[in-house]
Structures are given as structure tokens and as C-alpha cells.
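Bug: C-alpha cell stream looks shifted between consecutive jobs. Job 1:
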Amino acid sequence: MEPIHSKTLQDLEFPIVLEQLAARCTTELGKESAMELEPLTHQETLLQQLGQTSEYLASFSNENRIPNHGFDAITKELKLLQIENTVLEVSGFRRIAHLCTTISLHKKFFKKFREYYPLLFAFTEGIQENTFIPDEIGAVIDKFGEIRDNASADLKRIRLDINSVRGKINQSFGAALSRYLSADFLDDIKESIVENRRVLAVKAMHRRKVKGTVMGNSKTGSIVYIVPETTLQYSTELSNLEFEEKEEIRRILLELTNAIRPEASALEAFQYFLTHMDMTAAKAKYASEMNALLPEISAERKLILRDAYHPLLYLTNKQKKERTWPQTIELQQNNRIIVISGPNAGGKSITLKTIGLLQVMLQSGLLIPVHERSSVCFFDKVLTDIGDNQSIENHLSTYSYRLKNMNQFLKRCNNRTLFLIDEFGTGSDPELGGALAEAFLEVFYEREAFGVITTHYANLKLLANEMPHMTNANMQFDNRTLEPTFQLVLGEAGSSFTFEVAQKNGIPYSLINKAKKKIDRGKVRFDATISKLQKERSKMSKTESRLQGEETKAKEEAARLEKLNARIKSKLENYQELYDHNQRMIHLGNKVNDIAERYFHDQKKRPLISELLRIVETENSKRKKSSVKEAKAKKALKKQTANELEQKLVKVRKEKVVKRKKAIQAEKAKPRPVFKIGDRVRMHDGKAVGSIDTLEKGKAIVNYGLFTTNVSVDLLELVEAKK
């Protein structure tokens, strides 16, 4: 891939994207790098950067947040390290130590989470962790930025001497203060500080009575500031010691600078790594704000952008809380060039800039705001001609500039090129300019270049209609209000709506009619046909969306009814189970009631207990059988595979059907019983037993105790005839 021309980047407003990216960087070096970002020419590096940004973006939505990469630049320190016998300042050493510890933190983090961030982990593998530098600096400078006492033996001795001398100064000053205070030589304030020294505040009249060095006097002249003579000799000693301390610190820092000087190249690599991390984090933040992602990168030449947003327009409208219209556009081998036509202010230029800006952003390692099912490829060249580009300084008219630009296109255009031209062929005589534009477009077509152009020329629309790998497209308009809907529609040319828009803006109809008569009748009819087609498409689009809405509603209603049906079925089954259970309990209760009545009459306990035990054992044997059956069934279910189980179920169903048929045949073969009032009966399907109350014309009223029901005698079977 060759570098993309700066004029192309300017046309597509790429510098504004860089400004927005720089604003999201946290370090100064990161901001500088962001402003210098340009499309990459090496495809492997580009894929790595896109992948790293995508991984960083994923870290925002999982618990493994990447550590803070903030650092202060050490550019000045790196320059000093290249010069012999230079000494770094304490602040410089602290910045270097922080840089090293941040690198160590990142190395450990990405090693731990290498599965989550494989590309970022691979990037950290390119640098080696350095614990020597922070250890050396930490041994000399503490966390408050002070030189440690034990940085050298001489420094420790000097500081002990300084503390001793300061103690003597305070002691001697205190003695002088109390002596002159008792003599009433001092003012009410007693003492003060002058030039960082403690001084006695002596009344001016007693200045000759106090031995020492005069350091100044008050504004009024009533007070003279004097350092006592005894303190002065210690102050001189302190100054000498402080000078020695300063020299020793400089020697220690020189030694430390020389120790880390060989590591300058490693420090430079660390700074580059963290600058790159800052850029990657800023790209991820930028992507997060505009819902950008990494689409499929295709090795084939195809550009399928689904629901693509113009990044700058999307972010601006997001702040204003306004809607941004996405575009869907496809450029493939069998559909290489798209000719967009239609009226002005319909969104043609925005669509063109969206495609160009997204391609440039992608080739600069930035994620783009498109649907995840989009597919993109890389182009070796991206050529643009957007805007009038008049130049007073270069004495170029719009058309002259555009011809020079077209000449460049002809020299550079090949099958790995994406060209974007706004208002193709304008700036000259419409007939001649249109013919020349058609000739240019044919050359681009023959060279198998990919491109999108916008035009009003009818001959270019016709060319797109005739060529097999070229497609017309238009920006949809509302046929009633003539307002743009900002939706790109592939497959047909767009009407310019020239006369319709003029009429809407209040131009007299008589004038419009006069204009219509002046132009070629065929052209008017062609434009009118296109306009009619667009209106029909608009109607069809609305009808389709309405039908889709109705279909969705019908599906939802069907699903709701299905759920309701399932619930009713479940309730009925529960009621049946409850009813059967209650019937069993009533039957059991009747048995117990009969036993209780017998005991009431004969008062014999043994028959009572034996009868009760028999009932309990009978019930338990039923429970045991059912539990054994359940256990066996569970065991069988565990052993069988899903396939075997299906086969068994089919077999069981078949057996049930056969048994059912046999039972029906047997039932038919049986002589129909003659029912009498009082017979105990039950229905063929049911378990509940009742007694017949009345019989009339093949119908019987059966009494179940709690309720009665009227059924056909054909549905009844005899349980027990009345005695």
C-alpha cells in the first residue's frame, strides 16, 4: 500500500478525527502521536494495531481491566543520558522509576491474561522488564523525592554533623535570647527570621549593647535585627556543611546517572511502548463512544458496509440528541462502481465521505462504526475529488483543478484503487463536460478500479445502466413532501426533482412550464420516468414496512394464544388429577366408615384392627409398586441413549394403539350389558365410579356423590350390578 495523499485526508476531514482522538489521550506524547497518525502502508502492522484496539475495547466490558498506562515523558532525560558526565535531576529519576514500574505492571498483567489479550501480550513480549533501574533509584531517592541519608557513608556523616551544628545554633541563640530579654534590650516580638536565619529583634537604642552581626532593621527603624556573636560562628560552620552536602548529593546523582546510562535504549523502548498503549486506549475510547468495531477483513476485493455511520456526524448528532441515518453500500467484483444521482441536499456527498473516511480510518488502525456483519478490504490507493478546490493563488478554476486531478487519477488508477468523486464532470459545458466524464469513467471501469461517484449527468446514469459491473443508486426522497430520507437505494438512478423542488420553493408554475419547453422533450420524459419509479419504490417500501409490522403482530398474537392454550390444558390436567385423588380418598373413607359402623354395633376390636391393617397394607403395597416402577424407569432412562429411548417410546405407543384396538374390538364383541337403576358404573375413559339414578332412551343420569352427570349408556361399563 502506498501513502494516502494529504489532500485526500483533508477532503475526507481526517484531521478532525485525529483531533478528537488526541483529546482522548492521557499523555502529552500520546497526543502528539495521535496528531501525527496517518494510514499505514504495511498490512501486517495494520492488522496487529486493529486487533490490539479491538482487544482494548473488549476490556471495557469485562472484569479484567487493563492497568493505568499514564506516565510523564522522559524525552529530556534521554537526551541528557546521551551526553557524557551529565547529571539528571531528582524529578527526572522519579519519572524514570515510575516508567519502569508501570512497564513491570503491564508485563505481569498481560502474562496473566494472555488468553484474553493475545495481541497485546505479544506486543509486551517485545520489551524486557527492568528491575535494576527502579532498585538503583529507590536505594538513593525515597518516595518523597528526598535523597536518603544512607545513600553514601559521607552523606550520612555530613547530615549527622549538620544536625549537631543546628542543635548548637539553637542552644546558643536560646541563651542569647534569654540574656538580652532579661536585660530588656529586645522588642516585644523578641525574634524574627531574616535571610533564612534566626535573628534577635533588638530595640534601636540598645543596638551597640548586643554583640553580633546586623542583618537589617524594621521599616520604622525602631527595631534592629542582629545575629548573636556566639551563633554566628556555628552558622558559618553550618554553611560549610551544607555546601559539602550539596557536593556529595551531586556526586551521588552523577554516580546514579552513570549507572543507568547504559539502559537508555531500554528506557526509550519503554516510553515508546506506553505511548503506543496510550494511543491504543484512546482509539478504544473513541470506538466505544461511536459504537465502532472491527469488521471482517476480507482477502478478496469487496467492501460491504452495513449500517455505516459517518463518525463525525454521528458524534455531533449524539451530543445534540439527534438521529443519524446509517448507510448500507456494497462494492464487489461484479459491482465495482456505483453512480449516485438525485437532488442536492439529499445526502449524496455525506454517503461519499462516509465510505472514504471509514476506509481511511480503518487503514490508520482505527475501528469503524458499522454493523458486525460488514466486510472490508484494504486498498493500495484511495483517490478523492471532493469540493470545488478553487485556488486564487495558483490561478486555477474549479474545472482546471478537476482536470489536473483527473489526470493524476488516470496515472495512478489500477485494480487496487478506491476512487471517490463528488459532482463528477461539473464545472464546464454540461454536454461536453458530461462526455469527457463518461470517457474518464470508462477508463476507470476498464482498469477494474472500485469507486463511488455522485452526478446529475443523464449520460453517466445511462452508462451505469448499460455496464454489467456498474450500478446506479439514488438517495431516497419522500415523494409527497420532497424531503430527503437519507437512505441510499441501489439499482436505479435518481431523479434530480429539478422542477418539483423549484415548484416547492415558490417559483411560478408558468416559469417552470416555460423552462420545460426549452429543453429536450426526451430528457424531461426520462427524468419524469425516474421520478415516477422513485415514487413507486417509496410507496412499496412503506407498504413493505407496514406488512412486516402486521406480520410481527400476527406472530406475537399466535404465540400468546399458544401459551394460553398450554396453560388451560395444564389446568385441566391438574383438575383431573385432583378429582381422581379425591375420588380415591372418598372410596377409602367409605371403607373406614363401614369398619367404624361395624365396630359401633359389635364392639369387637380384633376384626376392627385386622380390617384397618389390611386396608393400610393394601395402600402401602400400591405405593411400593409405584415406587419400584419409578426406580426401574429411572434406571432404564439412565442406561438408554436418546435414540434407544425414542425407539422404545415408538414401540410402546404402537403397543398401546394395538391394545386399544383389541379392547375396542373385544368391547364390540361383548354383549352390551343391560343397565338397571342402582347399578354401579363408570365411563370407559374414567376412573370414577358412580350409581345410576335414572334411565331413559339410551341416556343415564349417573350420581357420583358430589355431582350428577347425564351420559349415553354406550359410554358406560358395569362395575357392580345392584343386588
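Job 2, same session, no restart:
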Amino acid sequence: MRARARCVKGCRSRCARLAARAAGIACSLAAVATATAGEPKQVLILDSFGRDFAPWSYSAPALKSELARQLAAPVEIHEVSVEAARWGAEAVEAAFAHYLQALCQPRGPDLVVPIGGQAARFWGEHRQHLAPSTPSVMAGLDRRLVQTLPPAANDVVVGFDIDLAALVDIILQVLPLTTNVAVVFGDSPLERFWVAQCRKEWAPFTNRIRFTWLNKLPFDEMCRRGSALPPRSAIGYGFLAIDAAGVPHMEPEALSRLCAAANAPVFGVCEEQLGHGIIGGRLFSSSALGRATGRVAARILQGEPPATISPPVAGVGPPTFDWRLLHRWRIRESQLPPGSVIRFRQPSLWERYRWRILAVVAIMAAQGATIAGLVLQRVWRRRAETSACEVSGRLITAQEEERRRIARDLHDDTNQRLALLSLELDLAARTESPSEIAAKLETMAGQVRDLSSEVHKLSSQLHPAKLDQLGLVTAARTFCSELSAQSGLRIGFAHDDINHELPAEVVLCVYRVLQEALGNTVRHSHATEARAELRMTNQHLRLTVSDNGRGFDPVQARRARRLGLLSMEERARLVHGSLDIRAEPGRGAVVRLTVPVSLRPPAPKEGV
């Protein structure tokens, strides 16, 4: 009774505000009565519950924008709410119709657009007293409402078809274990109509699902019931304009409060509800319906007869879901129907910061590579320094041993021979017989020749004079011939005609490598044949020394850091050449030295 008293009192205050608003609109439309035919078209929009009541609150703005875009001529739009539809009071509704009659006289609007079932019902009942000849575009009517409100001849219906069964189907597809569905609607006459339609069309599901109808509850009680649902529950949200206590509710505030309190996912019917708490469903678009209404209204205002216009009935779109709510209720995307659309998908950290992550990784990789390079360079440098120190030490040791050998040869052989020759000279000076003197001189001459040969041999070992006098080819051939005679190893020698001057450092390098390679062959390989070749190809001088000996393992030889191998590699490095050693145990060895050279023609001899 108290609620009814408050409702009646509020009804009187709303009537007063309604009268003031209608008087203001009457003043604005009264000026239209004296307007000329060239003035803007007049459009009257009738809202069922007001501008802020969903789902029509999304249709009206879209209608206005599309109408302004479609019409080249100016248009004036007046929007009025059918307040009486909210209260259901016949006296208020009659008073409101009386004031609208004043608005429509003497010149009525060019087009009337009722939005929603209540506005369409009101216009259908009162249009004969208000503007019987004015065409109208009835928007936001489901096919079920069209059957209860047959339009007139000059009416165009821009309707839609809500698939009520699809709402339950979606719930069962996404949550197949659901056994209880709480249904949320308000308690206005239009909402009671939809409750009746739902009960009728959901009857086939009652053997599987228990439906809990919340339309007879105040909104706070709806929220409380929604927060205490049993397991395996879901909520089906239609729309909520006026609850059972007569309190009006506007979206999205009411929907957001209900979804925040609910302990089960909420499925809806309107696309505009997505993003305000519903998880999704097969949704129809109120905004798209408003745009379609604007296009039809523009055609009528441009002179097209309403009877020729038959817009298609809009249906629901594909299954659409809120990605955030899917995660909240732990629903995998694989549970959704095929072809589902996911909205509000939040990018992953990789998708959001991909380029920053790649940049940081690239910088870190570059830093890591730089650090690794510096570490490796330091290791290599230490190894090189160690190797250089080792080689230097071994070279110094080898040099001292060579000096010791030369000193020993000079002392034990040459010096003793000189001493013996000096002694024999003294004895020859004391001899008086000419024949004895001649014999001793002949003996001493032979000793001098032998001594000269030994000194020449020692000098050749230190630095062969033939290199400077006769050139690389002759010196190499002579060395091979002399070594073959001394060792008994058959050494073959082949060469190109190198009729150009070679740099002295290149000549010395090639000759020393030849000496070392053939010396190793004689000392270690037990070969019976060896061959040395000198070739000139593409500004490169190549020396190849091969044998048929027992061979060796080059890797092991490098690890052992044999002095002969190190000296050959060092000599090749000093002249920017390369040394390639190929050998296998039991298959001989091949030493190949390649040195880049810049050839010059031989200098002409003097006097030529």
C-alpha cells in the first residue's frame, strides 16, 4: 500500500512536469503552423520509457545521426517520452494524449517514429485524434509485437526477430552442465509480455533446466537472488525498465550492478549490453536497428510512399562473447560455438610489448655477443702470447743449439785441421830435401781444399750465397741434388720458368720451407722418393713438397708444437702466405706453401 501511495504521489508530480514539458513542445510546434512549405521537415520521436531506458536508448541516437546523414535538407527532430507507459495510469495517458493533440495542431509533424512496443501501442490508439494522415515508422518492434499491433496503411515497421530459444541454446553449448537459469526482466506491461513469450518458447527445455523468474522482485532482491544461485546456474538477462516496486532502472548501471553481484555468468540478448557485464550470446544490435530506421525515415521524408518500403526484419548476429568474462568464469574458447566472435580481447604481454621486448632482447644479445667476443679475444690473445713466448723460447733455444753446433764444428774440426796444418808447415820448414817438401806441400794442399769445402758447407747452411747469385730456382735445384746425393733419397724437382724478379723475403721464405720440408722427409719419413715443385699461378708462387713416406698426424704435430712446423708457419705468415699440410699415417705427406707476389721483369744486365 505504501508503495502504491508513493507511486500515485509520484504520478501527480510527473503529470505536472509532463504538462510543463508538453506546453514547451506545443510552443515550439505552434510556430510550425505558420511556417511555409520550404521550412525544415518536422520529425516526432516517441520513446517508450524515456531516452535512457535500454535497449531503445541506443536506437534513438543512431536514428538521429543516420537521418541527418541521409537528408540533404535540414530537419528538426523533437523527442517525447510516453511517460504514461511507465505508470500504466489511464488518466495520465489521456492527459498526455490531450497535450500531444495540441502539439499536432494546426500543422502536424511530417513523420512520427514510435520506438518500442509501448510507444507503438500508444500511437496506434491515439493517432486518429492526433495526426491520422501522418506517416509513421515503427521501430524496435519484434515480430511477436507486430502481430498484436497491426500497422496502418501509411506505417512502415522496422522490426527485428529475437531468437529466444537461442539464448538457452547458447547457455547449454557453453555450459552444458547447467541445470538452473535465473531470468531477469522488469514488471512493466511490455516486460510482462516478454516473460510470457519466454515461458512459452522455453517450455521444451523444462525437462532439463529449472527456470527461476525474477520479474516479480524489486531490483535489490534480484541482485541478492543472483548472488546466491546454486551450482551449475546461469542468468538470462532480457531487459529491465521498471522493477516490481515501480522503480525505473537505466542501463548500463542496473546491468553492471546485477553482473557484479551475480555468482554465475550472465547471458544477454542485446549487443549494447556487451561490455557491461554479460558474457555474451546471440545478440541483436539496437544501434543497427536505429540506423535502419533512419534510412527508412529519410526515404519517406524525401517523398517515397510508405507502402513501397518493406525493410527486412533484422535478426541476431553470430555468437559474440566478452573475452574478459570468459577468463573470469574460466570458460575456454574451445567451449564456444563455431564461428563465435570474441570482443574486448586483451593482448598478451608479447602482443602488447613485442617490439620493446625484441629491442631489449636485441640489445642484450648484442651486449652478450660483445662480452663473449671480448672474452674470446682475451683468451685467444693469451693463447697467442703464450704461444709466441713458447715459440720465441724454442727459437732462441734452437738458435743457441745451432750456434753451439757451429762452434763445436769450428773447434773440433776446422780449428784442429788448421792447427794440424800449422804443425805440418813448421815441419816442412825444417825439411831440407826438396822431394819431401813437395810431398808435404801436396798433402797440405789437399787438407786446405777439404778445409775450404767444410767452411763452404757451413757457410751455405747459414745463408746460401746461391740464392743471391743464381736465384731461387737454381738454388732449390742444387739443394735437392746435394741432399739427394748425401741422403740417398731420390728427390725430383720441377719448376716453371720464373723469368721475373721475386722479393728477397719471398725467396728466402720459400727456400727455408723447402729445406725444412725435405729435411723432415729425410730425418723422419723413411721415404724412398720425394718431389719438389715450384709453380707460378695467378700472381701466387706455390711450393709443393711431397713424399711417399710413412706420414704423420698434422693435428697431433700441431698440438706437440714441433719447432720445424712452427718455423714454417711463422715464415709463411711473415710474407702473408699460407701453409697447408696434408698427411695421413702410412700415406706420405704433402706440404704446400702459397705466397702472393708482385712480379717485376728482370733487370737488364749491364752493357746490354
